[in-house]
Amino acid sequence: xxxxxxxxxxxxxxxxxxxxxxxxxVGAGELVGVIGPxxxxxxxxxxxxxxxxxxxxxxxxxxxxxxxxxxxxxWLPQTREIAWPVSVETLVGLGRLPHLGPGRxxxxxxxxxxxxxxxxxxxxPLRPRTATRLSGGEQARVLIARALxxxxxxxxxxxxxxxxxxxxxxATMTVFATLAAEGRxxxxxxxDLGLAVRHCTRLLVLDHGRLVADGPxxxxxxxxxxxxxxxxxxxxxxxxxxxxFQPLEVLPCPPSP
Length: 257
Hints:
Elements: E1 2-13, E2 16-27, E3 31-35, H1 42-49, E4 56-59, H2 66-72, E5 73-76, H3 88-93, H4 108-120, H5 136-149, E6 154-158, H6 166-181, E7 185-189, H7 193-199, E8 202-207, E9 210-215, H8 217-220, H9 223-230, E10 232-239, E11 242-250
Helix pairs in contact: 4-5
């Protein structure tokens, strides 16, 4: 089942091409990692797919009416801001709003979704705490839980593991992998190539706004591509614990023509 289709998507800002003619689709059961250097267009790609950025081309999500879009895809932006001093449980419960009619309160199914999201992120002990009083890493996990509580076929997350400690980075990627294994689709932008290789079923590589590679991690992250796009050397190995990818050294810049 196809959950997202992008057809010839391009974005231009102040006469600068940010995305260039990107075509792809994402199906159920995929955990898609969007990787690339800073400024490659990763955030813009996710926001454009959701219809949050003016663009040329077609996005199947952006074409949906807003209520339907909110039930089709959950969005976890890179900017983390909790504006109100509400409890963790209340904040996560906001993820259920797309499923509630005007003036309607949460029912049993909504409370189950909230409980499941809290448990998935290990937030049970924090549920009565005031969200604005948590650490930055804890707040990040609460916002991820809110997106999970939305319980949509597709989840888009922009650098969700940035600022988390190693335990919670791995745990979060494991949650995303579990969602994909259950038949949902997840698109996540990230800079940690090691975690991308270990958890993602597919990688999209952006460079200067272009999609330069798309496929399984071990086919995408070739020494040539890693050197050309990321300007580093790296070690890639298969181990009994799974694939390991470790960037090693910055490569010298090629001489100017």
